[in-house]
Specification:
The chain has eleven helices and nine strands. The protein has helices at about 15-45, 90-95, 160-175, 180-190, 225-235, 235-240, 240-250, 255-275, 275-285, 290, 315-320; strands at about 50-55, 60-65, 70-85, 105-115, 125-135, 140-155, 195, 200, 205-210.
């Protein structure tokens, strides 16, 4: 495969830059198709609808959403390739090299997925991967990097499901660099929190990474190796999440579990609207609003200051969401 170069030098010519972007766009489109096929199979009956859209200012995307499926109440899988001038507020939040020094142009292509199951026995899952470039006003690349990750948000405290998810992620990360899982697991634990609720965790974590550049001192990997790693994360849900869906899809639940699921979804919404970088970036760069807010569940609830009895499954779930070590023997899925 042609590599997606992440060079941060300013010697990249226009033909090479165009080729790099075209390859990144093809890579993301392939992942988008794979993920759509995977979740279509897992749902066992629902159909994705597709919307193609263009962004004023440059680029566009493809949104695929499954609504009222057999297994999933809502599943959204989006890809986009957008470019243009980076607004000042977005540039400050982005944190890339050169992003706040005069005029900044950007290019980004990525795929993002959020799945909200019908059953509270099946956890919500999120995944995204992306490639990003920043350019100065002369068209020279000032920064380029990969980002992404995936995390699990359970409603019912099945510890074995979270262990399986993390074991599979660790195995995928370890194939590329021994530092990736512990580093990106910690990053995920620290990122997916509702700061306004005393750092309450959104879910049971996973891995999260951003600004991962070619030749960084902490990994030393070239661009081909980095793209291989990010591609593996983009495909990890088949093994990390698929078995959980199959294990839980027919498990009985009642009104109490459903009510708790809706309340937990409310917390999910709070994080995505208040803290999520991707949501903020989309809103600040005039992206298609339906795609930006694709991650929101069809139904959610907010209860005033709920209390859960000690030992109840609700209390166990909230206790389980505290950051902790999930992997078993460190050698992959149990």
């Amino acid at each position: 495969m042609t590599s997606v170069s992440a060079s941060t030098t300013n010697t990249t010519g226009a033909p090479e830059r165009v080729s790099r972007r075209a390859e990144a766009t093809r890579w993301i489109a392939g992942l988008h198709d794979e993920l759509t096929a995977l979740f279509g199979r897992l749902d066992r009956g629902g159909t994705f609808i597709e919307d193609r859209w263009e962004r004023p200012g440059g680029g566009g995307g493809v949104s695929r959403v499954l609504i009222e499926g057999t297994t999933f109440e809502k599943a959204g899988i989006n890809r986009s390739t957008v470019m243009g001038v980076l607004p000042e507020l977005a540039a400050r939040r982005l944190g890339g090299h050169g992003a706040a020094n005069g005029g900044t142009d950007f290019f980004v292509t990525g795929v993002s997925l959020v799945v909200h199951p019908r059953s509270p026995m099946i956890p919500t899952v999120h995944l995204n991967v992306r490639y990003f470039e920043l350019m100065d006003t002369d068209g020279n690349i000032t920064d380029a990097w990969f980002g992404g990750g995936t995390d699990l948000t359970p409603t019912y405290p099945f510890r074995e499901d979270v262990v399986h998810f993390h074991d599979t992620l660790k195995a995928a990360c370890d194939r590329h660099h021994s530092s990736f899982y512990p580093r990106f697991k910690t990053w995920c634990d620290e990122y997916f929190v509702n700061v306004h609720r005393e750092n309450e965790a959104r879910g049971a974590g996973g891995v999260f990474f951003d600004h991962i550049r070619e030749g960084d001192d902490d990994h030393g990997l070239n661009v081909d190796a980095l793209q291989a790693f990010v591609s593996d994360i983009g495909r990890v849900l088949r093994d990390a999440y698929g078995p959980i869906v199959e294990r839980r899809r027919d498990q009985a639940f009642g009104e109490r579990e459903r009510d708790f699921q809706l309340w937990r979804r409310g917390r999910y919404v709070e994080f995505n609207l208040v803290h999520d970088r991707g949501t903020h970036f989309g809103l600040q760069t005039n992206a298609r609003i339906e795609s930006v807010l694709m991650s929101l569940p069809p139904l959610a609830a907010w209860k005033y200051s709920p209390r859960f009895e000690s030992g109840s499954f609700e209390a166990q779930l909230l206790d389980m969401l505290r950051p902790q070590t999930w992997v078993t023997d460190g050698h992959g899925p149990a």
